[in-house]
Amino acid sequence: MSNSPNVLALSGGVGGAKLALGLSLSLPVSALSIVANTADDFLHLGLPISPDLDTVMYTLAGLNNREQGWGLAGESWHCMTAVERLGGPSWFRLGDQDIATHLMRLNGLQQGHSLTQVTENLCQQLDVDHQLLPMCDEAVRTYVQCAPDNHHDTTYELPFQSYFVEQQCKPAVTGFRFEGIERAVISPAVASAIENADIMVVCPSNPFVSIAPILGVPGLKQRVLDNISTRVVVSPIVGGIAIKGPAAKMMAELDMPRTPLAVAEYYQGFASHFVLDTCDECFVDDILALDMQVLVTNTVMNSLEDRKELADTILRWIQASG
Amino acid sequence: MSNSPNVLALSGGVGGAKLALGLSLSLPVSALSIVANTADDFLHLGLPISPDLDTVMYTLAGLNNREQGWGLAGESWHCMTAVERLGGPSWFRLGDQDIATHLMRLNGLQQGHSLTQVTENLCQQLDVDHQLLPMCDEAVRTYVQCAPDNHHDTTYELPFQSYFVEQQCKPAVTGFRFEGIERAVISPAVASAIENADIMVVCPSNPFVSIAPILGVPGLKQRVLDNISTRVVVSPIVGGIAIKGPAAKMMAELDMPRTPLAVAEYYQGFASHFVLDTCDECFVDDILALDMQVLVTNTVMNSLEDRKELADTILRWIQASG
Hints:
Two copies of one chain form a homodimer. Chain A has about 325 residues and is α/β, with parallel strands linked by helices. Chain A has two domains: about 5-140 and about 180-320, Rossmann fold (3-Layer(aba) Sandwich); about 140-180, no CATH class. Chain A is built from 13 helices and 14 strands.
């Protein structure tokens, strides 16, 4: 392994994007490829929306809205207001600038470009130099399976964004289904990124709805296992909570302890290295027993420096242990 | 004919929309249907744009930008700015609020609704009570045939919006082609509007690119001739110029005099009544000789009162002469 190892990062949205940004600040352009989940993509008002891909892209471009946690900084909402006046849906908020991204994607896809190509073009325009790839070019759609409740006698399914945004993650989760995943294909760009990688880093993203779909692309997980011996998972669970998103709530509903240990067990047989936060040091021995190397460090990324520091720490650790 | 005759108006964009608005101020909801040209519709950034339909709709809703002459009043341009940042086209300006209309249309069409249904829904949301109909539900696309110039050795074609907006009507016109017109079908709503109409009013719109496509829908012109005996054309040419748009420039390039008489000759055999401006009174006898009844009045609509006054004057004249 050279001084600048090639890293393949897997990321969902906001939480994962923080470490993806950190890695981009630590690694030269040629040494990092980020593969983002696209199973929470959906059509809204006819627009192809790729929330995770755009969150990573905006974050790498320094254009993300840090206060809001999603979307673009300095965003305006004139189009949405007009959509509401026209009787359209308002539960999924699209900012005026953000809509431009979706229009460019719609136009590119209509012209026959792949999502990979469209993403490359958008990144180029936003001066995002590190490679950002959708997990595949085919449409995969996450459905969240929900427990019976006051309105449903039996288990039922919600499209991911209905669960996540419209229902604000309130329904209790029993499982997940990735519609279309069996038709997904490892793209040439993802194949090449796997082939070139020395290290894989699973960013602190939701294991069930962000990382599972990526690893669920037929053949992808096995190809990673065959090609990349150093597979690092950064725990998205810190001190019993998820820093961002419903991961901890989902774990409880799935009868899993809300601990980094449960995350490590989830990735057993796949992760070779596991990173957990200092506040969760008590789980180190149990995770070591899962046959993983373990790094205890500060994983909560509040500042830009935190993001780069976590990336640097992980890379130094891997190189020292490798 | 009752005191409130049923009127079918044909309209292009801005110029026609003025009289359409005037008619809507003069006639009860049940007594007016407006059929708008859709041959200058096009896909832009993946959005289905219907410029004439939207101009009439916004005008009837009182939301149009009167200073600019197109689009919505109080419009903002944040999305367009972002599209430009992403390397997208900027020659056709879409306002943030206007984009909402196109998104609702995109979404409606994707869900299998017809353009007629989508337009009805949009009008309902904007409290446009009078019936506004696209000329057909099928895609018809105007191509402007242009004379050879410094960049072209032979005649060439431009899609209408490229000619109209991007090239600002600069190329010299030799003819027009309405792609897909042979597959267009008279919609049930247009058929019903023709059947119920006592009077047809051709608003002061471009004869070549606004009215010709409407009358070019297979069977439509004949159905009008068979069903509506009073067919009024309001001259879009006043004092040798077009109040709005390239009609006069086109007439010169097509070797037609830029006069209301030439317009009347163009509609000979179709128009039974012709309305021209006071400043063009000299043409009355020649137009009478074309076997048309002629009304000379002020046709320049600057104020809202002008719009209603012209509509009232035409309707009073028809009823008096009928």
